[in-house]
Specification:
It is a single chain. This protein is an alpha+beta fold. The protein has helices spanning about 5-10, 10-15, 25-30, 35-40, 60-75, 80-85, 135-140, 145-160, 165-175, 180-190, 200-205, 250-265, 275-280, 285-309, and strands spanning about 20-25, 45-50, 50-55, 75-80, 95-100, 110-115, 125, 130, 215-225, 225-235, 240-245, 270-275. The chain has 14 helices and twelve strands. Strand 10 (about 225-235) and strand 11 (about 240-245) form a beta hairpin. Helix 6 packs across helix 7 and helix 8 (about 145-160) runs parallel beside helix 10. The chain starts with a helix and ends with a helix.
Protein backbone atom coordinates (compact mmCIF):
# COMPACT_ATOMS: atom_id res chain seq x y z
CA UNK A 1 0.00 0.00 0.00
CA UNK A 2 1.33 3.45 -0.93
CA UNK A 3 1.41 6.44 1.43
CA UNK A 4 -1.38 8.13 -0.58
CA UNK A 5 -3.58 5.03 -0.35
CA UNK A 6 -2.97 4.82 3.39
CA UNK A 7 -4.05 8.42 3.89
CA UNK A 8 -7.26 7.84 1.94
CA UNK A 9 -8.19 4.49 3.52
CA UNK A 10 -8.99 3.84 7.17
CA UNK A 11 -7.83 0.65 8.83
CA UNK A 12 -11.48 -0.40 9.18
CA UNK A 13 -12.07 -0.06 5.45
CA UNK A 14 -8.77 -1.73 4.67
CA UNK A 15 -9.44 -4.94 6.63
CA UNK A 16 -13.03 -5.11 5.40
CA UNK A 17 -11.83 -5.09 1.79
CA UNK A 18 -10.40 -8.61 1.98
CA UNK A 19 -10.99 -11.57 4.28
CA UNK A 20 -7.40 -12.46 5.11
CA UNK A 21 -4.89 -12.45 7.94
CA UNK A 22 -2.61 -9.47 8.62
CA UNK A 23 0.57 -9.07 10.60
CA UNK A 24 0.46 -6.47 13.35
CA UNK A 25 3.75 -5.10 12.04
CA UNK A 26 2.16 -4.42 8.64
CA UNK A 27 -0.90 -2.72 10.11
CA UNK A 28 1.09 -0.56 12.52
CA UNK A 29 3.42 0.53 9.72
CA UNK A 30 0.51 1.72 7.55
CA UNK A 31 -1.99 2.99 10.14
CA UNK A 32 -0.09 3.43 13.40
CA UNK A 33 -0.29 1.54 16.73
CA UNK A 34 -3.32 3.46 17.98
CA UNK A 35 -5.48 2.58 14.97
CA UNK A 36 -4.68 -1.09 15.45
CA UNK A 37 -5.58 -0.97 19.15
CA UNK A 38 -8.86 0.78 18.41
CA UNK A 39 -9.79 -1.76 15.70
CA UNK A 40 -9.19 -4.62 18.14
CA UNK A 41 -11.11 -2.84 20.91
CA UNK A 42 -14.08 -2.26 18.59
CA UNK A 43 -14.07 -5.92 17.59
CA UNK A 44 -13.21 -5.23 13.98
CA UNK A 45 -10.05 -7.30 14.25
CA UNK A 46 -9.45 -10.54 16.14
CA UNK A 47 -6.02 -11.61 17.38
CA UNK A 48 -5.44 -15.05 15.86
CA UNK A 49 -1.81 -15.58 16.85
CA UNK A 50 0.73 -13.32 18.56
CA UNK A 51 0.78 -10.12 16.48
CA UNK A 52 -1.36 -11.70 13.75
CA UNK A 53 -4.93 -10.49 13.18
CA UNK A 54 -7.98 -11.28 11.07
CA UNK A 55 -11.26 -9.46 10.37
CA UNK A 56 -13.88 -10.42 12.93
CA UNK A 57 -16.10 -13.23 11.69
CA UNK A 58 -13.53 -14.53 9.21
CA UNK A 59 -10.92 -15.88 11.61
CA UNK A 60 -12.00 -19.52 11.18
CA UNK A 61 -11.95 -19.54 7.37
CA UNK A 62 -9.32 -21.92 6.04
CA UNK A 63 -7.42 -19.39 3.89
CA UNK A 64 -7.34 -16.97 6.82
CA UNK A 65 -6.06 -19.63 9.21
CA UNK A 66 -3.42 -20.75 6.71
CA UNK A 67 -2.17 -17.21 6.08
CA UNK A 68 -2.21 -16.48 9.83
CA UNK A 69 -0.17 -19.59 10.62
CA UNK A 70 2.37 -18.69 7.95
CA UNK A 71 2.66 -15.10 9.25
CA UNK A 72 3.07 -16.26 12.83
CA UNK A 73 5.72 -18.87 12.00
CA UNK A 74 7.42 -16.94 9.21
CA UNK A 75 7.29 -20.16 7.21
CA UNK A 76 5.36 -21.75 4.32
CA UNK A 77 2.31 -23.95 4.75
CA UNK A 78 2.89 -27.67 4.19
CA UNK A 79 1.26 -31.06 4.77
CA UNK A 80 -2.47 -31.57 4.28
CA UNK A 81 -3.08 -27.81 4.32
CA UNK A 82 -0.75 -27.41 1.34
CA UNK A 83 -2.46 -30.30 -0.48
CA UNK A 84 -5.79 -28.53 0.00
CA UNK A 85 -4.41 -25.20 -1.23
CA UNK A 86 -3.20 -26.94 -4.40
CA UNK A 87 -6.60 -28.58 -4.89
CA UNK A 88 -5.27 -32.11 -4.40
CA UNK A 89 -7.65 -32.98 -1.56
CA UNK A 90 -11.24 -31.87 -1.15
CA UNK A 91 -11.58 -31.27 2.60
CA UNK A 92 -9.49 -28.69 4.52
CA UNK A 93 -7.68 -30.02 7.59
CA UNK A 94 -8.40 -28.69 11.05
CA UNK A 95 -4.73 -28.07 11.82
CA UNK A 96 -2.39 -26.02 9.64
CA UNK A 97 1.11 -27.40 9.18
CA UNK A 98 4.10 -25.13 8.60
CA UNK A 99 7.62 -26.26 7.84
CA UNK A 100 10.70 -24.76 9.51
CA UNK A 101 14.41 -25.37 9.80
CA UNK A 102 15.30 -27.43 12.86
CA UNK A 103 16.81 -24.55 14.85
CA UNK A 104 14.09 -21.99 14.13
CA UNK A 105 11.34 -20.79 16.43
CA UNK A 106 8.41 -20.80 17.19
CA UNK A 107 7.85 -24.10 18.89
CA UNK A 108 4.13 -24.79 18.95
CA UNK A 109 0.66 -23.24 18.93
CA UNK A 110 -2.92 -24.49 19.05
CA UNK A 111 -4.21 -25.18 15.56
CA UNK A 112 -0.72 -25.09 14.04
CA UNK A 113 1.54 -28.08 13.54
CA UNK A 114 5.23 -27.23 13.24
CA UNK A 115 7.39 -29.62 11.23
CA UNK A 116 11.14 -29.20 11.36
CA UNK A 117 13.45 -30.36 8.60
CA UNK A 118 17.21 -30.41 8.18
CA UNK A 119 16.97 -29.16 4.61
CA UNK A 120 14.82 -26.37 3.12
CA UNK A 121 11.97 -27.33 0.81
CA UNK A 122 10.90 -25.26 -2.21
CA UNK A 123 7.93 -22.97 -1.74
CA UNK A 124 5.95 -20.33 -3.58
CA UNK A 125 2.87 -18.11 -3.16
CA UNK A 126 -0.64 -19.38 -3.87
CA UNK A 127 -3.70 -17.23 -3.27
CA UNK A 128 -1.49 -14.86 -1.32
CA UNK A 129 -0.32 -17.62 1.04
CA UNK A 130 3.28 -18.91 1.25
CA UNK A 131 3.03 -22.64 0.53
CA UNK A 132 5.42 -25.44 -0.39
CA UNK A 133 5.42 -26.53 -4.03
CA UNK A 134 2.98 -29.26 -5.11
CA UNK A 135 5.71 -31.92 -5.14
CA UNK A 136 6.80 -30.96 -1.62
CA UNK A 137 3.16 -30.89 -0.49
CA UNK A 138 2.70 -34.48 -1.69
CA UNK A 139 5.95 -35.73 -0.18
CA UNK A 140 5.30 -34.10 3.19
CA UNK A 141 1.57 -34.79 3.28
CA UNK A 142 1.52 -38.28 1.74
CA UNK A 143 1.85 -40.18 5.01
CA UNK A 144 -0.89 -38.12 6.66
CA UNK A 145 -3.46 -39.22 4.09
CA UNK A 146 -5.63 -42.33 4.43
CA UNK A 147 -3.83 -45.15 2.64
CA UNK A 148 -6.65 -45.50 0.10
CA UNK A 149 -6.15 -41.88 -1.04
CA UNK A 150 -2.36 -41.65 -1.22
CA UNK A 151 -1.67 -42.85 -4.73
CA UNK A 152 -4.58 -40.89 -6.22
CA UNK A 153 -3.18 -37.64 -4.77
CA UNK A 154 0.26 -38.42 -6.18
CA UNK A 155 -1.08 -39.21 -9.65
CA UNK A 156 -3.37 -36.17 -9.56
CA UNK A 157 -0.32 -33.95 -9.08
CA UNK A 158 1.32 -35.60 -12.08
CA UNK A 159 -1.79 -35.60 -14.23
CA UNK A 160 -2.45 -31.91 -13.66
CA UNK A 161 1.23 -31.19 -14.34
CA UNK A 162 1.71 -29.59 -10.95
CA UNK A 163 4.82 -31.70 -10.43
CA UNK A 164 7.07 -34.09 -12.33
CA UNK A 165 8.78 -37.37 -11.51
CA UNK A 166 12.20 -35.75 -11.21
CA UNK A 167 10.92 -33.31 -8.60
CA UNK A 168 9.63 -36.19 -6.51
CA UNK A 169 12.88 -38.08 -6.90
CA UNK A 170 14.94 -35.06 -5.81
CA UNK A 171 12.76 -34.40 -2.76
CA UNK A 172 12.83 -38.04 -1.66
CA UNK A 173 16.62 -37.98 -1.94
CA UNK A 174 16.76 -34.84 0.22
CA UNK A 175 14.17 -36.03 2.76
CA UNK A 176 15.04 -39.58 3.84
CA UNK A 177 12.55 -39.65 6.73
CA UNK A 178 9.02 -39.07 5.51
CA UNK A 179 6.00 -41.13 6.50
CA UNK A 180 4.85 -43.55 3.82
CA UNK A 181 8.17 -43.22 2.00
CA UNK A 182 8.30 -46.81 0.70
CA UNK A 183 4.82 -46.60 -0.84
CA UNK A 184 5.54 -43.21 -2.39
CA UNK A 185 8.84 -44.43 -3.82
CA UNK A 186 7.01 -47.34 -5.44
CA UNK A 187 4.56 -44.94 -7.07
CA UNK A 188 7.39 -42.68 -8.25
CA UNK A 189 9.16 -45.66 -9.84
CA UNK A 190 5.91 -46.71 -11.51
CA UNK A 191 5.40 -43.17 -12.84
CA UNK A 192 8.96 -43.15 -14.15
CA UNK A 193 8.06 -46.34 -16.05
CA UNK A 194 5.01 -44.69 -17.58
CA UNK A 195 2.20 -45.31 -15.07
CA UNK A 196 -0.26 -42.43 -14.79
CA UNK A 197 -2.75 -43.86 -12.30
CA UNK A 198 -2.97 -46.30 -9.40
CA UNK A 199 -4.53 -48.84 -11.74
CA UNK A 200 -1.57 -48.61 -14.11
CA UNK A 201 0.76 -48.94 -11.14
CA UNK A 202 -1.05 -52.09 -10.04
CA UNK A 203 -0.83 -53.44 -13.58
CA UNK A 204 2.92 -52.79 -13.54
CA UNK A 205 3.60 -54.49 -10.20
CA UNK A 206 0.78 -57.00 -9.73
CA UNK A 207 -0.78 -57.96 -13.06
CA UNK A 208 1.42 -57.58 -16.16
CA UNK A 209 4.63 -57.76 -14.14
CA UNK A 210 6.19 -60.91 -15.56
CA UNK A 211 8.92 -61.14 -18.19
CA UNK A 212 6.49 -62.11 -20.96
CA UNK A 213 5.00 -58.59 -20.83
CA UNK A 214 8.29 -56.70 -20.59
CA UNK A 215 8.23 -55.64 -24.24
CA UNK A 216 5.04 -53.59 -23.75
CA UNK A 217 5.57 -49.83 -24.03
CA UNK A 218 3.64 -47.72 -21.54
CA UNK A 219 1.84 -44.52 -22.51
CA UNK A 220 2.68 -44.99 -26.19
CA UNK A 221 1.57 -41.97 -28.20
CA UNK A 222 -0.27 -42.21 -31.52
CA UNK A 223 -1.71 -39.39 -33.63
CA UNK A 224 -4.65 -40.13 -35.93
CA UNK A 225 -6.44 -37.47 -38.02
CA UNK A 226 -4.89 -34.83 -35.78
CA UNK A 227 -6.12 -36.53 -32.60
CA UNK A 228 -3.55 -37.52 -29.97
CA UNK A 229 -4.01 -40.73 -28.00
CA UNK A 230 -1.87 -42.39 -25.34
CA UNK A 231 -2.09 -46.17 -25.13
CA UNK A 232 -1.74 -47.45 -21.55
CA UNK A 233 0.29 -50.46 -22.74
CA UNK A 234 1.33 -51.22 -26.32
CA UNK A 235 3.01 -54.28 -27.81
CA UNK A 236 4.84 -53.08 -30.94
CA UNK A 237 5.46 -56.66 -32.11
CA UNK A 238 1.82 -57.74 -32.41
CA UNK A 239 0.35 -54.21 -32.49
CA UNK A 240 -1.84 -54.90 -29.47
CA UNK A 241 -2.91 -52.22 -26.98
CA UNK A 242 -4.07 -52.79 -23.40
CA UNK A 243 -6.33 -50.18 -21.82
CA UNK A 244 -6.79 -50.18 -18.05
CA UNK A 245 -10.21 -48.69 -17.33
CA UNK A 246 -10.75 -47.04 -13.97
CA UNK A 247 -13.97 -46.80 -11.99
CA UNK A 248 -15.42 -44.27 -14.47
CA UNK A 249 -15.01 -46.56 -17.47
CA UNK A 250 -18.64 -47.75 -17.38
CA UNK A 251 -20.16 -44.26 -17.43
CA UNK A 252 -21.77 -43.51 -20.81
CA UNK A 253 -19.68 -40.42 -21.54
CA UNK A 254 -16.40 -42.25 -20.97
CA UNK A 255 -17.64 -45.42 -22.64
CA UNK A 256 -18.60 -43.54 -25.82
CA UNK A 257 -15.24 -41.78 -25.87
CA UNK A 258 -13.41 -45.09 -25.47
CA UNK A 259 -15.42 -46.74 -28.27
CA UNK A 260 -14.53 -43.91 -30.65
CA UNK A 261 -10.89 -44.05 -29.58
CA UNK A 262 -10.69 -47.81 -30.16
CA UNK A 263 -12.15 -47.37 -33.64
CA UNK A 264 -9.57 -44.76 -34.60
CA UNK A 265 -6.71 -46.82 -33.15
CA UNK A 266 -7.89 -49.83 -35.16
CA UNK A 267 -7.23 -47.88 -38.38
CA UNK A 268 -3.52 -48.28 -37.54
CA UNK A 269 -3.96 -52.04 -37.31
CA UNK A 270 -3.88 -51.97 -33.51
CA UNK A 271 -6.25 -54.22 -31.57
CA UNK A 272 -7.34 -52.86 -28.19
CA UNK A 273 -8.10 -55.02 -25.16
CA UNK A 274 -9.87 -53.26 -22.30
CA UNK A 275 -9.71 -54.46 -18.70
CA UNK A 276 -12.01 -53.14 -16.02
CA UNK A 277 -11.01 -52.02 -12.56
CA UNK A 278 -12.75 -55.10 -11.14
CA UNK A 279 -10.89 -57.45 -13.49
CA UNK A 280 -7.49 -56.01 -12.64
CA UNK A 281 -8.15 -55.99 -8.91
CA UNK A 282 -9.91 -59.33 -8.52
CA UNK A 283 -8.72 -61.66 -11.29
CA UNK A 284 -5.23 -60.70 -12.47
CA UNK A 285 -4.43 -64.22 -13.74
CA UNK A 286 -7.47 -64.11 -16.03
CA UNK A 287 -6.22 -60.79 -17.42
CA UNK A 288 -2.79 -62.28 -18.07
CA UNK A 289 -4.22 -65.37 -19.75
CA UNK A 290 -6.44 -63.35 -22.08
CA UNK A 291 -3.47 -61.25 -23.19
CA UNK A 292 -1.29 -64.34 -23.70
CA UNK A 293 -3.88 -65.93 -25.95
CA UNK A 294 -4.51 -62.76 -27.95
CA UNK A 295 -0.78 -62.19 -28.45
CA UNK A 296 -0.39 -65.77 -29.67
CA UNK A 297 -3.25 -65.36 -32.14
CA UNK A 298 -1.96 -62.00 -33.36
CA UNK A 299 1.56 -63.37 -33.80
CA UNK A 300 0.25 -66.35 -35.79
CA UNK A 301 -1.81 -64.04 -38.01
CA UNK A 302 1.30 -62.00 -38.74
CA UNK A 303 3.31 -65.10 -39.62
CA UNK A 304 0.56 -66.27 -41.97
CA UNK A 305 0.37 -62.85 -43.63
CA UNK A 306 4.14 -62.83 -44.18
CA UNK A 307 4.07 -66.31 -45.71
CA UNK A 308 1.39 -65.25 -48.19
CA UNK A 309 3.47 -62.34 -49.37
Amino acid sequence: MTATETQQTSLSDYVRSAAQAYSGKELRAHFGPSALKRAVARGELVRVHPDVYAPSGHENAFDVRAKAASLWAGAPVAGLAALFLWGLIEEPPQSIEVVLAQDEKPRRRDGVRVRRLKVPVPHTIRNGIPVVTPAAAVVLGYGCLPKKDRSSVFYAALGRRLAGVRQFEALLDALPKVKGRRSLERSVRAAASGARSYLEERALYKVFNTQEFSRFVRQHEVVIEGNQYFLDMFDPVTRTALELDGRLGHINEYRQRNIERDCWVATLGIQTLRFSYQDLMERPEWCRQVVREVLAVRAEQQRTARQRT
